[in-house]
């Protein structure tokens, strides 16, 4: 059973797969990037390194942020470090092994699991790469 970090992104409670080292931090200054929004908000600094800050709200809810997120989760997405904007962190849980899926969210008992492969593809598509 894989471990996942349970978070809230706007009104959605989702599980982020744990892949190696994750860091939870308060959101600091963000340097905007051209043509990045709504998914890629810009660059932020975590542990002295600049990392892309990803806003999942438009993908999950189809709407801009309703309340102001103040937290981010630094994680790995297909080998690249990214910070995911979240509203709340609930803790770590074990989930059943997810089936292979092409959906952004994989339905599992206990809540949906974010599919990092699909998220990486969505980010590349939104940036025109």
Low-confidence stretches: none
Q: Report the principal-axis shape.
A: globular
The structural class is mainly beta
Number of helices: 2
Which sequence of SSEs, written as H and E, runs from N to C?
EEEEEEHEEEEEH
Strand order of the largest sheet: 3-7-8-6-5-4
Major sheet characteristics: 6 strands, mixed
Strand content: 35-45%
Please give the radius of gyration in angstroms: 14 Å
Number of strands: 11
Overall pLDDT, averaged? 84
End-to-end Cα distance, whole Å, is 34 Å
Share of helix, binned: 10-25%
Notable characteristics:
129 residues, 2 helices, 3-stranded antiparallel beta sheet, mainly beta
Explained architecture:
This protein is mainly beta and 129 residues long. The chain has helices at residues 57-61, 116-126; strands at residues 3-9, 12-17, 23-26, 30-31, 40-46, 49-54, 71-77, 80-86, 88-94, 105-106, 113-114. The radius of gyration is 14 Å and the shape is globular.
Write the layout of secondary structure elements.
Elements: E1 3-9, E2 12-17, E3 23-26, E4 30-31, E5 40-46, E6 49-54, H1 57-61, E7 71-77, E8 80-86, E9 88-94, E10 105-106, E11 113-114, H2 116-126
Parallel strand pairs: 6-8
Antiparallel strand pairs: 1-2, 1-9, 3-7, 4-5, 5-6, 7-8, 10-11
Concise account of the structure shown:
With 129 residues, the protein is mainly beta. It has two helices and eleven strands, in the order ββββββαβββββα.
